[in-house]
Amino acid sequence: MYQLKRYILNNLSILFISIFSALFTIASVIFLIKLATYTAVIQLSIWEMTKLYIFVLPELLFYTLPITFFIAATLSLFKLSNDNEIIVLFSLGIHPKFLLRTLFKPALFLSALMLFNYLVVFPHAKVLSSNFISYKKSEAKFNLSASEFGHKFGKWLLYIGKDDGNGVYGEVFLFNKNNKEEILIGAKRAQVINDDGILRLKLEDGEGYSYSNESFSQINFETMYINDTLNTKLRTYTNAFEYWTSDSRKSAKTRMLITNTLISLFPILTLFLVASIGIVHVRHQKAKIYLYLFLTIVLFYGATLGLQKVLVFYTIPLVALTTLIGTYIMYRKMILARF
Fold this sequence. Notes:
elongated, alpha+beta, 9 helices
């Protein structure tokens, strides 16, 4: 029995790797196309693009692994059927339950891995990715250059006389006006500093003037920081539990919890269906395996996304039980009644 299990799992692993490689490549290409749209707004180096890809990797794995297992498990049984090996096994007294038990362990492991992925790893990667993009956008919003036109730096109007390169600017003037006073600051050199998402302007070797109806003042300085700046909106969280239970984007996270829970359980919920459409008698049955695979994925995902708008969290037990009961009935009629 051990050799038989190993033989079945070897067939499964070969198909799993080949299908996963194709699906993961397609998903990666789609993400890279999406990443290309970011470059219209922000500048990304090769390392920064790699970081973004690493951040989205848990999401790519989550949406490709369950589907890959379902397709690979079904095709592996179908291949055994086409080679008449299934008939030989049943003739030797091997019960179809043996095939289900063999596939159950990898399905259970994959479902547990997917639950851990989206409950624990996904929030961390999602926050890192969101903060990184916000950080880069805040830099893009403040792209300084020497020109005859001014810039806006928070509440300040900013003029740059020349660009010395490497983020250092010369002949810099800032002006701020409110109801009570006007402030003019001039500096020979300036540099933008991004400190944890907070942009600050460092001024060196300059003078500042303040004018109001009551007074006029002037100061000389060697170094000055302008802190009234553009702040990057960074998301923070302490742990995965706090991420899922916080009120921030609650409706979106509710939909994500429902969808991701059912997708994580997909390998286990469809085991009876894997046996039902994967085990065939090639002489007496017309195999429509690819049609069944397509319809199963569409119906499962359609029910998951459609019912949650009405049933909310009740969607999870309803879809799970319906899938299990429906596929078990198919398994009894199509497999146990014949083999």
